[in-house]
Structure formats: structure tokens, C-alpha cells
Design a protein that fits this description.
The chain is of the alpha/beta class. The protein has two domains: 79 residues, Winged helix-like DNA-binding domain superfamily/Winged helix DNA-binding domain (Arc Repressor Mutant, subunit A), CATH 1.10.10; 205 residues, D-Maltodextrin-Binding Protein, domain 2 (3-Layer(aba) Sandwich), CATH 3.40.190. The protein is 42% helix and 25% strand. The strands form three sheets. Strands 3, 4, 5, 6, 9, 10 and 11 form a seven-stranded mixed sheet that branches. Strands 1-2 form a two-stranded antiparallel sheet. β3, α5 and β4 form a beta-alpha-beta unit. The radius of gyration is 23 Å and the shape is globular. The mean pLDDT is 92.
């Protein structure tokens, strides 16, 4: 039995598919399947039921996979300990971000992090909040950047910056002529929002409800860029986080981006990591660079 076999087993348990598990582990499907067969022979029990249509875990396989997660998590902790004694700002880190932050924040911070910490390699992953939290819990990821607060006491958090919301409205709408928007201006307006699963949806709903606006229930977008295209077509208006607002805008743009006057609706962006992580110093130094860049 070796760690790679345990990683393969966990991957199959979570993917329920040999090919996807193999891609996730960066090996060929025959290699993964052969190693798991070897593990079953060593343990003397069937862990995975295989047929031409699907893959499923046996009860024993599920139990072993659960224990394997704990072992892999502890092995990762050992690696973190040795890394912290060597150089906390070197080595590899797996960082997860939510989709409404990743494409807009990463171009701002990655060049700076690379310059400040040239020996640190960041592997970047984009998922919705619920998936990120589960992966952080299972040590599949080391740290997260997402909207806070998160309803859990399992993790430690670091505040990074406050991000305000802007109104994105078609140019032909009356509101587009305003220099700034007040919440009362949204009263009885209909807003386009993201689909369920995005934390930004809940934050935008809070703003809409407090302003007396309603949601357009006939449509929910899968991404901020899809929302932007809907606004560009003149179908409706939406709220965008400031990082998603283009820095350069022209008179030919079909969308007006309007900031709110005080009190400005906003969301808190921060970093999340497992409590007691030996790489806390790493995260603190990264957070300081991000804070300075975004201030």
C-alpha cells in the first residue's frame, strides 16, 4: 500500500468515474485501474464495483476512502511542517477562488506575488463556495480567497479588502444618465442575477431587497460575463463587483457602469485556511501583499 494508491482511491470515490479520476491524478486510466486492483489484492477485499456502464464504491471501499482522506491530510500536514522550517515562502500551494473573484483578481495579484515570492508555486482552482469549503476541509486545497463571512468555525480567516458594488445598466435606460446611484433609485426596478450556488447571488439579493428592487425570475446567469452580455443586449440591469467593472470605458459602450453613493453596498473579500496550519506565516505574508496591492 502506498500514498498514490490512496489518492487514486479517493479520486474514484469522488469522481465515480475511472477516466475522470485518472485525469485528476495525471495518470493514464489503465495505470490508475491497475494500481487500485493491486490495492484490492493486498487488502483482500473488493473496494470498487466495475462494469461497462458505471463505477461504484463498495461499502468497504467507501470506508477505506474515508480513512485514506485522513491519512493524506496528515501527510500534507507533515509536508507543511518541513516546509515551514525550510522556507515558508517556497514550495507549492493550492489556492481556490470563487468564480466572481478569480478572473478579475488574479491578473491584479499574481504578478505581484510572483515577484515577491519567486520560489512559491501557486496552483489555482475555481469553484463555487460550497465546493471550495469541502476541498479545504479535506486538504485538497490549502487556502481560499472568497467572500466572507463563511458560516463555519473550522477555518481561520484574514480580511483582504472591501469590494463595492456598481450598477450595470443599458445605455438607453433613464438610470444610465446618473453619475451616482442611490439605493432608493432601485426601488421597483427588476434585476438580473446569478443562479443558485453563487454567494454573490445572496449578496445581490440583500441589496435588491433593501432597495425595494425585485429579481427577474425568468432568467438566472451562470457567470458575471453572461450577466454583462444580457445587460449589453438591453434586457435588464444588474449589480457587478467593482473588480468586474472595466477600467477603460468609451462612449460607444452599450453599458453604463455607475457607482453607488454612500452608504455603498459592498462585500468583504478574505482568505480562509485550516486552523492550526503550519503554513500560516505563508498565508499572512501573501495576504499582506494582496492588501497592499488592492488598497
Amino acid at each position: 500500500m502506498n500514498l498514490r494508491e490512496l489518492e487514486y482511491l479517493v479520486a474514484v470515490d469522488e469522481e465515480c468515474h475511472f477516466n475522470r479520476a485518472a485525469e485528476r491524478c495525471f495518470v493514464s486510466q489503465p495505470t490508475l485501474s491497475g494500481q487500485l486492483k493491486k490495492l484490492e489484492e493486498e487488502l483482500g477485499i473488493m473496494l470498487i464495483e466495475r462494469n461497462t456502464r458505471h463505477v461504484s464504491m463498495t461499502d468497504a471501499g467507501t470506508a477505506v476512502a474515508q480513512q485514506a482522506r485522513k491519512i493524506l491530510k496528515e501527510v500534507k500536514a507533515i509536508k507543511e511542517i518541513t516546509q515551514s522550517f525550510d522556507d515558508p515562502m517556497a514550495g507549492e500551494l493550492k489556492m481556490g477562488l470563487i468564480p466572481t473573484i478569480a478572473p478579475y483578481l488574479l491578473p491584479e495579484i499574481i504578478p505581484e506575488l510572483n515577484q515577491q515570492f519567486p520560489r512559491l508555486t501557486l496552483w489555482l482552482y475555481e469553484h463555487q463556495t460550497a465546493v471550495l469549503l469541502e476541498k479545504l476541509k479535506n486538504a485538497d486545497l490549502d487556502l481560499l480567497i472568497l467572500a466572507l463571512p463563511v458560516n463555519t468555525d473550522e477555518f481561520s480567516e484574514i480580511n483582504l479588502f472591501q469590494e463595492t458594488f456598481w450598477l450595470a445598466v443599458p445605455r438607453h435606460k433613464t438610470l444610465s444618465r446618473k453619475k451616482t446611484i442611490q439605493l432608493i433609485d432601485l426601488n421597483e426596478q427588476e434585476m438580473l442575477l446569478l443562479e443558485e450556488g453563487h454567494c454573490l447571488r445572496g449578496q445581490a439579493l440583500d441589496v435588491c431587497f433593501s432597495a425595494g428592487a425585485t429579481e427577474n425570475n425568468s432568467y438566472r446567469a451562470t457567470s458575471l460575463e453572461t450577466l454583462r452580455h444580457m445587460v449589453s443586449e438591453g434586457i435588464g440591469m444588474t449589480l457587478l463587483p467593482e473588480l468586474a467593472v472595466p477600467k477603460k470605458r468609451t462612449r460607444s459602450d452599450t453599458i453604463s457602469y455607475i457607482p453607488f453613493s454612500d452608504p455603498k453596498p459592498s462585500r468583504r473579500i478574505g482568505m480562509l485556511y485550516r486552523q492550526g496550519s503550519y503554513r500560516e506565516q505563508t498565508y499572512q505574508q501573501m495576504a499582506q501583499v494582496i492588501k497592499e496591492k488592492m488598497s
